[in-house]
């Protein structure tokens, strides 16, 4: 599936924006050809993350769990899922890609 997006992007970059480094994105339509599938994948991963966290919270709130460290376990499992599912990308999904040394780009 990625080949369906990467090959047309490479061809368009080669034909219309083949100057020096490919990190510059001066032509927006070419950039959005590769960025849209990435944003869709980030959105799907975010939905999966929210559903998993809801299940974890339900397990913690259940009366079957009697341990005292349940909140610590919930926090640990949630913090493990954030980089695993790429949830941190939601913050930088649309911002931080432009030129310059803005704070969001620097944080990314």
Give the SSE map.
Layout: H1 2-16, H2 28-61, H3 70-85, H4 103-107
Helix pairs in contact: 1-2, 2-3
Search tags:
GIPR protein, 4 helices, mainly alpha, 108 residues, transmembrane helix
Main structural class: mainly alpha
The rough form would be described as: elongated
Q: Estimate the helix proportion, in percent.
A: 55-70%
Q: Which residues sit in consecutive blocks of at least 5 with pLDDT less than 50?
A: none
Q: What is the terminal-to-terminal distance?
A: 27 Å
Largest sheet: none
Multimeric status of the protein: single chain
Mean pLDDT value: 79
Give helix and strand order, one letter per element, not per position: HHHH
Number of strands: 0
What percentage of the residues does DSSP assign to strands (E)?
under 5%
What's the helix count?
Answer: 4
Radius of gyration: 20 Å
Briefly summarize what is shown.
With 108 residues, this protein is an all-alpha fold. The chain has four helices and no strands.
What can you see in these coordinates?
- This protein is mostly helical and 108 residues long.
- It has a domain at 36-96.
- The chain contains four helices and no strands.
- The radius of gyration is 20 Å and the shape is elongated.
């Amino acid at each position: 599936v990625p080949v369906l997006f990467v090959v047309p992007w490479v061809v368009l970059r080669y034909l219309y924006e083949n100057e020096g480094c490919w990190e510059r994105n001066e032509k927006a339509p070419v950039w959005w050809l590769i960025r849209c599938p990435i944003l869709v994948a980030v959105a799907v991963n975010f939905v999966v993350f929210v559903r998993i966290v809801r299940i974890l919270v339900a397990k913690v709130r259940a009366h079957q769990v009697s341990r005292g460290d349940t909140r610590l376990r919930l926090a640990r499992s949630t913090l493990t899922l954030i980089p695993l599912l790429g949830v941190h990308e939601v913050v930088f999904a649309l911002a931080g890609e432009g030129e310059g040394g803005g704070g969001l780009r620097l944080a990314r």
